[in-house]
Amino acid sequence: MKMEKMMKMNVLFALVLVSGLALGGCTKDDDTWNVSELANAREDQDVGGLLMVPLTLIQSAAGKGAVCMDGSLPAYHFDPGHGSGANSWLVNLEDSGLYFRGQRIYEAAMEELMSKGMRNADQAFLSGCSAGGLAVVQHCDEFHGLFPANIKVKCIADAGLFLDAVDVAGGRTLRGFYGGVVNLQGAAANLPKNCTSQMDGALCFFPENILNNIQTPLLFVNTAYDVWQIQESLAPKSADPTGYWDSCKKNYTTCDAKQIQFLQGTSSAIHITWLYLDIAFNV
């Protein structure tokens, strides 16, 4: 436990950014939003206690046009590391609501963090969950590019493997959603050029279409049956107007044989993607 305490790294709970799309990370009126609860590993406090980390506004963001939808400043929570972990950085991209100007906010945030000591990192880790996991995929190489070549940089996307899957009505709900984002925000300009040069920008939101060109070590954590994707991408109300899938997508034990077969097909698609990942990073 002593060693764990001494090696405590810089922890940052920050903005969730996906190209021109940013999810979360903006200020709110509720004062209770101004703190995050992190597991406490300080020597002068009991293990298992809570460490309240204050909110830090990015004051320079406004002048760069890197603001949230209501014009408020983007923000983050920062818990400095100490001991042998003082130069180890973990940047976590959280999931929240819908925001614009994600690329500008990302750049403003990274610039501020570099000025706060991240430029001296001996190792850096970019992580995120759900939409934050997708943001990790989009920004992984960009994040790596902030550091010298000899610095260890890795990324992990938790529940960020969104699939360009066919829904229960035979359509592609998520592709349509991403297409709307790309067209509304002009996000194609901020997506990987080696992808947009070969296919429509909406398709370049899907990890399966950009993984082959990511150079930084990237890890995925994903369930075979992703609840959000089943409810919002595979069997959304728009694709299931009669409600045939309502019970099944909330409780898999109620699924009939036809529904189970459909879900197993989706699970197989994820497994195929895992195989592709293994090949891509081990050639």
What labels would you give this structure?
about 280 residues, alpha/beta, 3-stranded antiparallel β-sheet, about 30% helix, globular, disordered N terminus, disordered C terminus
- Compute the average pLDDT: 81
Order of helices and strands, N to C? HEEEEEEEEHEHEHHEHHH
Number of domains: 1
Shape: globular
Major β-sheet annotation:
8 strands, mixed
Number of strands: 11
Annotation field: number of helices = 8
Strand order of the largest sheet: 4-5-6-1-7-9-10-11
- SSE class: alpha/beta
Helix content: 25-40%
Regions with little confidence, pLDDT below 50 for 5+ residues: 1-7, 15-47, 279-283
Compute the separation of the termini in Å: 39 Å
In terms of DSSP E residues, the strand content is 15-25%
Radius of gyration: 20 Å
Can you tell me about this structure?
With 283 residues, the chain is of the alpha/beta class. The chain has one domain (2-225). It has 8 helices and 11 strands. It has helices spanning 2-6, 102-115, 131-144, 173-185, 193-196, 227-234, 246-250, 257-280; strands spanning 10-14, 16-18, 21-23, 35-39, 50-57, 75-79, 88-93, 99-100, 123-129, 152-158, 218-221. The strands form 2 sheets. It has an 8-stranded mixed β-sheet with strand order 4-5-6-1-7-9-10-11, with helices on one face. Strands 2-3-8 form a 3-stranded antiparallel β-sheet. Strand 9 (123-129), helix 3 (131-144) and strand 10 form a beta-alpha-beta unit. The protein is globular. Residues 1-7, 15-47 and 279-283 have low confidence and may be disordered. Belongs to the pectinacetylesterase family.
